Records
---
Amino acid sequence: MKIIVCVKQVPDTSGKVAVNPDGTLDRASMQTIINPDDKNAVEAALQLKDETGCRVTAVTMGPPPAEGMLRELIAMGCDDAVLISGREFGGSDTFATSQIIAAGINAIGLEKDDIVFCGRQAIDGDTAQVGPQIAEKLQIPQVSYVADIKKEGNDITVKRMLEDGYMTVKVQTPCLLTCIKELNEPRYMSVAGIVDAYSKPMDVMDYPRLKDDPLIEADTIGLAGSPTNILTSFTPPQKGAGMMLEGADKATCEKLAGILAAKHII
């Protein structure tokens, strides 16, 4: 059994978001972090590794500097990592990205008892589309918004979060699960893991290596293979200071009611 975890390096949106003149994110000028939901997916994979002794491989698609993120994940406990990188993949939307990552997983090899983990969504796009799309391209069952995982043989029982409760779903491997932050608390890197992370070679999959996969065609990857494009990106304006009313007397209540009525809230 092995687990493949799909991760993404994203801009740190806690600071100012830089935007290029064409409306796209200026990623080069922004600090990057591991996508938070993806770290929960990594922790879920590592917990199963602790229980079963399986192998965990981290996979990302991105520019060469994403290698640093992958080595952080090896330092957390992943056994190895794969960087899918090539200019031909640039500009991919969720559809094209899922095509490329699915081809990368095909190159790794997906067997009967394997599991693919993804985070629920990335904080730079918030679409929650790539994970489910990868499952469709691989033609394997999927469960999204996973809040608990139990493995028994080739059966995986998960608790799936809904808007008003939870649903228990049993699925057979191979399958794909997208994880939410409520699933676990990601562990830290270990000192021994950091040393080990920089002693391992990085497996890089470029376009020539993946081009023979049926999913990789000129009209299904990169900007040309992306049905959707970002029109513009911008930093939302900061909200102004709120109005504070002090007191619990009738006059204060009447003043509050008047303000709400003037704004047509009541």
Note: The chain has seven helices and eleven strands.
---
Amino acid sequence: MRKVLLTGDRPSGQLHLGHYVGSLKNRLALQESGEYDCFVFLADVQALTDNFATPQKVRDNILEVALDYLAVGLDPQKTTLFIQSLIRALPELTVYYLNLVTLARLERNPTVKTEIAQKGFGASIPAGFLCYPVSQAADITFCQADVVPVGVDQLPMIEQTREIVRSFNQIYGEVLKLPEALLPSEGLAQRLPGITGNDTKMSKSLDNGIYLADDEKTLRAKIRQMYTDPLHLRVEDPGHLEGNTVFTYLDVFASDKAEVARLKEHYQRGGLGDVKVKDYLFEVLNAELKPIRERRTELAKDPGYVMQVLKEGSARANEVAEETLAQVRRAICIDYF
């Protein structure tokens, strides 16, 4: 039997290159491997934990993220694409799992702590936001996922789920599968910096990303803004590679490694301007994104088809979730009738 794979994204904005190299390319490879029964979802409930005052933003981005999924090659015949809020069992599972985790443990979650600082909640942390790792445990376990593809920054979230699963199984018997994190194979792809540099990862909330839907003009403009070397003031000056976002991107995306090595050597000894390096990066990225952009444009002409894909995927996910919920209710002795 094939293993079960579960992953997803918050529909709080279009997907960017960080998602592409950190998760989407990996999902495609896993989908095509034939080894997994793949579930990929749009986490609208999780998105509402910090977008509760702007629900229309979340609703609008359901279509945008689904377009990104289909444009990069996720196939609804091979991968179940679904909307989190349409899975009726998830809130009930979350309530049961909340009994198995302490408030102090939730507050110690490194991923949550980082996001709380980024969003500036201070002492006014919404309870839903603090508890979303428990909701995520419900997402992972409803389909009895064996593996969850994530970036390194999400490892604490998977460990939180594993703790909940271990506690549940210890108390109620072996009901839930213990999921494993599956990291991207490309080391650099695990943390793609934003275009502003400073080692800040690409993020929708920080608005420092290159999006899959960006047209050529926008792509070129964003690359021109990219952080390079503040000491490289003149073309003849020797340049530095450390912290240079343009070369970080070339390491990830350029297939001609010999040309990248040549550019690095020239840049370090001086005589190579930032504009020329950025123009080369534009050629590399545009070649990668052009077919995705074109497929996305075609799919956007028929939003009804895209939403039907999500409706059918959600129906299948619901069937799977109801089976798991029945097992959980039986284990905790509330299967009365």
Note: The chain has a mean pLDDT of 93.
---
Amino acid sequence: MNSFRSKLKPLKGLKAVVDRLRRRGNKIVLANGCFDLLHVGHVRYLAEAKSLGDLLIVAVNGDRSVRRLKGEGRPLMPESARAELIAGLECTDHVIIFRESNVERLLRAIRPDVHVKGGDYTSDTVPERAVVKSYGGRVAIAGGPKVRSTRDLIKKVKRVGGAHGD
């Protein structure tokens, strides 16, 4: 469990790791998301993101950010639990929690070689595309077409739970 927590980094610590590894020639990859209810689509997305470089940093939306993006009742789990779940994945090297609505500030600070988004985007619809291009990075789409969503899983759980009186 402590090894999972050691993957959680504040920005200053993360920048130091990135700078050191970049000097060694490593390719830095950043992926991000809410990860409110971890499912196979998330795992496929992050595993493919890792295959695009040497170091995978996963930025997890903070609680307020999730609420702004997804609405009341979300997130289902607090940011610390979501970050620890993502840190527990073998493909994840480091995790950072960000509180803004998007990762532009983090992208400017870390300047990953590759910024990866899931299959619900195209390279043209990635909101942070201009920021990534401004420092010479590239945008990639990973995880295949989006066929699962946390929203759909929540609806299914509510239906099943309601049918059983839980």
Note: The helical segments are 2-5, 11-23, 40-50, 63-70, 79-87, 104-110, 129-134, 150-163.
